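Thread: quick sanity check before group meeting

JM: Hey all, I'm pulling together slides for Thursday and realized we never actually wrote out the predicted structure for the chain we discussed last week. Dropping the sequence here so it's in one place. If anyone has concerns about the input, flag it before I start.
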Amino acid sequence: MEKLKLNFDIEVQGEPRTYIVEVPYQNGIVATSEFCPTELLSGTVDLMAAIRGESLDKFMADCRMQLLAMSKITEADTALDRHIGGLMAVVMEHLSRKKNISFGDLLIYVDCFSLLLKAAGFDRDEIYSMYPRITHTILELYPDYISNVPDVFAIREKTDGFISKLY
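JM (edit): ok, ran it. Output follows.
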């Protein structure tokens, strides 16, 4: 598998910014799940296929959409708040368009979010610890709008386990 370096240029609070996202790439597919805990990867075959990655074009569009949303956030207290706002804007846009979101698509959005955090210079351990908490929070916020969750109780139990280890 080769590594791709993808450059994304945006303006954040009037300042130009370049995010360089490095991802494994093979046969037109970008592997996105670098930060996804393996406990969240269990489930059906369809779920496994959905979270292993996505096409390069789709991945770039997903990253651009999050970055565009981030660039429009003017009142974030921190860079992390701006990133979370970008992620939530993409999730909300998806929900407004399709009325629900598959768990696999949600994880890909969180994957993009995590890779953008890495490109922004966030600590790898911090990103690993954020991933299950953010996924858990979105599951709790929109339980009726997330489809194909293999076992909500098991996912929540696993993410709760990760969260409890952090404290």
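AS: nice. The helical segments are 45-51, 56-72, 79-98, 103-119, 124-141, 152-166. The first helix runs from residue 45 to 51.
JM: adding both to the slides.
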